[in-house]
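<instruction>
Derive structure tokens from the sequence
<data>
Labelled lines for chain and fold:
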Amino acid sequence: MKKTILGIFALIFLGAAPSWAKLNIVTSFPQDAAIVKAIAQDKADVKSLTLASQDPHAIQLKPNLAVMLNRADLLIVNGQDMELAWLPTALTNARNSEILEGAPGYLNPSEGVELIPYSPEELLSTPFFTTNIIAGTQSAGGGQVSVVRGNHHYWLDPANGLIVAQNIANKLAEIDPRNADFYQANLTQFQSALKERIAKWDAMMEPFKGTPLVSYHRDWIYLIKRHGLKHAGYIEPRETIPPSAAEMASLIQKMKAQKIPLIVTSPWQNLRLPKEVAKQTGATHLVLPSSVGEDVGVKDYFDLFEVVYGKLTDTLKGIQ
């Protein structure tokens, strides 16, 4: 007994992590935290830097973000410049070189996802324009190579959750090889359950293929494309830039002429604008949660899509 206690103290004072130490994992957004919890379970403490009800593009920097990042063993970002306006500063303040891009404690789980590209028109005069369309990287000859990022709301196609989960499990096994089999078993269970749910959700949406709708932002494009819905326009024509009066008038005219019956938004968006468009066009305005959290009434990853598809299909049935 005495030797055991002395051995534990020796590990602590020598700086070695005991075998029962949990990984400290931080994610940019709650949907990734939900997947990590399903795979890592009791092997990790998992925290999200943000809430589902917050605008993911414009998070207010607070000291607690730097503290969380400073203590992290692994940072999982969304990528595709979603965090461009706030995470680089938070990482600078955190002073944790082990979770910077390229370090072992950094993961962008979008690798392998088929991204929907932005057009230059969608990004014109936005904070993403210089990064995505102009800046690029230097070629060997000194010229610029275009680096066009894809739409960063890729997690809202549930099939991409299969890829994200695989990338997360691979990274967990890499930084914690002792528990690799545990992570793989949980991944297999997660992917099997998700595939079953996806088959059910696809069947729920099949009757509504071709239904036209308008979205506030580009967050629902992946789900719209997956189910063959007809996207007819945006409340916000350019990323993160509020619409002009002329743009609003043009959209309202189009919706009236084409009898577009539905507007879909997320909780963190300016709901005043879609409510006004709905009022003037007679369309239904539907707010769908786009991430996981008690603040939007979603308890876990699977529940996110159960709520989304439940509300969406109920609404579509009512407007057909």
